[in-house]
Every structure is written in C-alpha cells, then in structure tokens.
Amino acid sequence: MTPEAIHTTAPGGNLAHAEHDATANQAMGFWLYLMSDLVIFATIFATFIVLSRSFAGGPMGRNLFDLSFVLIETMLLLCSSGTCGLAILAMHAGERQ
Fold first, then answer.
1. Predicted local distance difference test score (pLDDT) of residue 72
2. What's the CA gap between 91 and 86, in Å, rounded?
3. pLDDT at 11 exceeding the cut of 80
C-alpha cells in the first residue's frame, strides 16, 4: 500500500474526529472561562478583605453609600438569574408555555 493511500480520507473527510475536536475545544473553553472568572472574583474578594478596614482617614463606604437595600437587590438579581437558567433548561427540554 502506498503512503498516499494510507493518509487519504474519504470524500466527506473524517467528520467524527472533527466533531470530537470541536466538543473538546468547547469544553476546554468553558473551563478556561470558569477558571478566569474564579481568579477575577478571588482577586476582588481578597482586595475587599484587605482594604475594607483601610480607609486612610477618609470616609468609609457606609458613609458614602446607602446599603439598606443591598440584600433585597442581591436576592432579586439572583432570582432573575435563576429564572433565566430555568427558562434555558425548559427551552432545551422542548417545553413551551
């Protein structure tokens, strides 16, 4: 058998291998995004913890911002994100209402 015959693919190409590569690339991209997001938020929280008591004699955050509705606003944002997630799951399941 000639080397050309060994390395020649069918007219459609090797589609199963290409599909596997695309899925692997998507999974790797997802994990890369997730880890970069983790690093960003870890940096933000670490900065907050280190600087939360260091205000250099100036006004503190509670003097500048009204924090009375923070919990309510956070819960509303979390509920809206959860609702969007449930809608996407229902869409993938094929349910319509």
1. 95
2. 9
3. no
